[in-house]
Amino acid sequence: MDETGFSDNGDGGAPGLMVDQGAVKPAADDGAYRVLARKYRPRTFEDLVGQEPMVQTLENAFDTGRIAQAWMLTGVRGVGKTTTARILARGLNYEVPGVADKPTVKLTEEGTHCRAIMEGRHVDVIEMDAASHTGINDIREIIDAARYRPATARYKVYIIDEVHMLSNAAFNGLLKTLEEPPEHVKFIFATTEIRKVPITVLSRCQRFDLRRIEQSKLIGLLRRISDAENIQISDEALMLIARAGEGSARDSLSLLDQAMAHGAGAIEADDLRQMLGLADRARVIDLFGHIMAGRIEEALGELQAQYEVGADPAVVLTDLADFTHLVTRIKVAPKSADEASVTEAERSRGREFAEKISVRLLSRAWQILLAGVQEVHASSKPLAAADMVLVRLAYAADLPDPGELMDKIRSGQNPLGGGVSSGGGAGPSGGGAQAMAIGMPMSSGGPGNGPSMQAGRPQLSAIQGGLPKLQVSPQVAPQPQAPAQPAYNLRNLHDCAALASEKRDIPMKVAIQRQMRLVKFEPGKIEIQPTDDAPADIAGEFGRKLTEWTGQRWFVAISRTPGRPTIHEEQEANQQQLLSDAKSHPTVAALLAQFPGAKVIDVKVQVSEEDDAALADPMVSDPLLSEALGDDEDD
Fold first, then answer.
1. What tens digit of pLDDT does each residue of 301-315 get?
2. Distance between CA atoms of residues 275 and 497, nearest Å
3. Beta strands at 453-454 and 457-458: parallel, antiparallel or unpaired
4. What's this model's pTM, rounded to 2 decimal places?
5. Dmax of the chain from CA atoms?
6. Rounded distance, CA 118 to CA 404, Å?
7. How many domains does the chain have?
8. Is residue 35 part of a domain?
9. Could you give phi then psi for residue 293, rounded to 5 degrees?
10. How far apart are CA 579 and CA 601, in angstroms?
């Protein structure tokens, strides 16, 4: 390790974030090239910037002797889970003769076991990849070996990477040892899929969620490493790498490695865009301006031009979504523009757009772009799919807000705004409705004129001419009327189920039909016997709903007296009776005998006009009784 705290060991694994220090010296050349993710790997807790809660917890635990038997490290790829596990194993076994002889997080100098642990070759620190050792036999070897004391170190430490890949049998076999391990054994687990780890294992571990690395810190890390490697790289190129890394140090360093090979000693932003298939950020902002102004022809041409120079359509839409997010953040939190990861072009033009575009329109654009990226990824023709997303976005941006339109119509105003002369129609190519919806300045000129150009940027302009003014008839204030209360004549549970269906309360309708046995039904009072699977509060909930729906007081009581079958049971019994009657009918029996293997699976009752009149009688309003009217019909 050099004087700055960067490591130049040769072991693999996920790199964490180094401490924010000055320029670093190039690692000694041992004749074999090592990727940057291995060459500049942290070796102490201080190097893991952004993980302060974990470091504080471990420091207090080590100082007080409250050391857990197992830790669970989780986080996205490349944030340093395996590296943190090795540093933790180093802290547990830290020993410097005459200086330190107990676990600590202050690894000020290299101890007796430090180098072997960080290089992954210490006899008492056993690393296992659960992706390739998933079975119970692998865990059984750990359980058998855990009984023996460490050979030279203070603790025997088992580091199991990607622990979620273990089988259920392996997890179950580990539980007992993990619950009560020997005092000289510690477990450290690492995983990117914490939800796949059984709760029985999680409950036996202290869990630490490693955070993504902030872009500003990631840019500083990349700058220090590129200086140490004597690589000339622009600030914009570093920003592109940090964005593409998405908070992962390992991904960012891998991209820097690739950029060093691509640029042959000097790396510019254009080289990175070509290497990664990225679009020029300034051109993405221009594309955003075209879309928000409704200039769909210019927007499609810009996308085609970016595609021809190697930009991926999905990446272009992703960058558009990112810029939409940036403009929205500047709109609601202006200080967001001052972040180090925001370029000067994004800062200035983002503020300009944020002043002119409403949050509602930005939210609509974000939703369309988010869905559009998925469509482009799934399409066999990415450019065509991206074109359709831009068309959809331009026309959606051109739509005024429905609520504002209704308010203007009610007040007798032109819903498209005042001062619009009669003439041609409006559409995204003119951008007029969009400009008026977000309050953009109007430019002079005749119909068909393009947007005005100021300061080298496309400005949103209003259309010259539009729809004629709407003729809105004067409104007469309605006379207040007392709300009519619907009258409900509930006579049985069938009526109650029908009312629940009318109120669109399907759970209550199902409960009435399947979980209530009627004992007594009177106006305002119902006695039921709930079924075994009915909830405990079914009577109170039923009464509350009836009172709410009808406006009348209903009392529902639970009776110990056995009730009649539920509506569902009666319907099932009636259907079975109809099937039985149909099978015994001479004509049906003859058909069944004529066609061996045939079955009667359903019976539909035909109701005559006389029966319809009978159904209107209150005495036969029950649906179960209405079905009986068809018993004399031939099925």
1. 989 988 887 788 998
2. 66
3. antiparallel
4. 0.52
5. 108
6. 64
7. 3
8. no
9. -85, -5
10. 8
